[in-house]
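Structure (tokenized):
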């Protein structure tokens, strides 16, 4: 009979800091991971911080200016390489096309926080394709695009508002577009793609390739890795898992059913000392990562991350103990190694 008599339960007793690091695009330009980031802590004050390159505060930053071939750039903040740049209001001047030609100028913030202009190649007409004649130019990999100026006239003049374009996702890069979700523990052996086995972030849509070399927007993350300590006397571990129920509706001469899914709490029982000074008591109501090994001598384990709840008992005779609940946002993940 298979049992878990030699099991081991570990809890997140501390956190190890990791500074902002460039994430790896899995290839679909949506799922991103980071080397060494197999689990992200979610404890209050230690949550992962995701900073895609892009504008943070300020919208429609570009406007007309009294000087020819020049736009006003309003004050803004933006992320580049994980650093928040605070940029004062300034101006930026572009380069018009040759006679009879069209071009697009991209107003950008460099990775050091300087506003500059990248001029596209002259073409016979405007194009929406990056890097081609008449199209918007590629910009350096850690620059942030603030907006574009489109010109079809070689004569210097005050920039018209109709020549300024700053639609988010097309002419302007914001850090929060597209939006993303964070999975702090990954999906383990159930992952359908390798990038989702461990912790990852996933954007709602693919990022755009607007940077030099047809490169995609870069994404940086700072996170804390859990440090685990063994809970020496535990029993009856239950992972957080989905349960399914069926309801039915009867119609004339038949019945139709529908299924609903509910995520249940994880739990285990811990035998305590005085139920007051035990390390786990100090972590109640915190979001922690629990790592459970069904056999301490083997590599397979289960990760569960959620809010720790305690129900303590102080018997007259017998061991003090706590029934521990783990209220998770996602179901537990199993790892064979």
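Design, position by position:
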């Amino acid at each position: 009979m298979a049992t878990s008599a030699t099991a081991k339960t570990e809890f997140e007793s501390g956190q190890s800091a990791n500074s902002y690091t460039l994430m790896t695009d899995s290839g679909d330009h949506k799922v991103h991971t980071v080397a060494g980031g197999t689990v992200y802590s979610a404890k209050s004050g230690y949550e992962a911080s995701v900073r895609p390159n892009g504008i943070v505060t300020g919208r429609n930053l570009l406007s007309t200016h009294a000087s020819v071939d020049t736009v006003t750039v309003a004050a803004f903040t933006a992320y580049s390489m994980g650093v928040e740049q605070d940029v004062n209001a300034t101006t930026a001047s572009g380069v018009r096309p040759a006679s009879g030609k069209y071009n697009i100028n991209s107003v950008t913030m460099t990775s050091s926080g300087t506003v500059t202009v990248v001029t596209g190649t002259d073409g016979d007409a405007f194009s929406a394709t990056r890097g081609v004649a008449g199209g918007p130019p590629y910009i350096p990999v850690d620059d942030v695009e603030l907006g574009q100026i489109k010109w079809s006239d070689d004569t210097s003049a005050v920039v018209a508002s109709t020549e300024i374009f700053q639609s988010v996702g097309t002419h302007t890069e914001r850090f929060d577009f597209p939006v993303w979700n964070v999975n702090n523990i990954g999906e383990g052996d159930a992952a359908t793609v390798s990038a989702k086995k461990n912790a990852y972030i996933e954007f709602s849509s693919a990022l755009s390739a607007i940077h030099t070399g047809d490169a995609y927007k870069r994404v940086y993350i700072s996170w804390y890795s859990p440090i685990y300590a063994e809970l020496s006397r535990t029993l009856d571990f239950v992972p957080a898992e989905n349960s399914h129920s069926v309801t039915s509706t009867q119609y004339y001469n038949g019945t139709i059913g529908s299924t609903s899914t509910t995520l249940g709490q994880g739990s285990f029982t811990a035998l305590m000392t005085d139920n007051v000074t035990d390390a786990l008591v100090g972590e109640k109501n915190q979001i922690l990562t629990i790592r459970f090994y069904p056999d301490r001598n083997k590599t397979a384990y289960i990760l569960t991350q959620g809010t720790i709840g305690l129900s303590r008992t102080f018997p007259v005779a017998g061991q003090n103990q706590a029934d521990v609940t783990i209220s998770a946002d996602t179901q537990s993940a199993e790892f064979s190694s």
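Reviewer-requested clarification: The CA atoms of residues 304 and 332 lie 5 Å apart. The chain has a mean pLDDT of 96.
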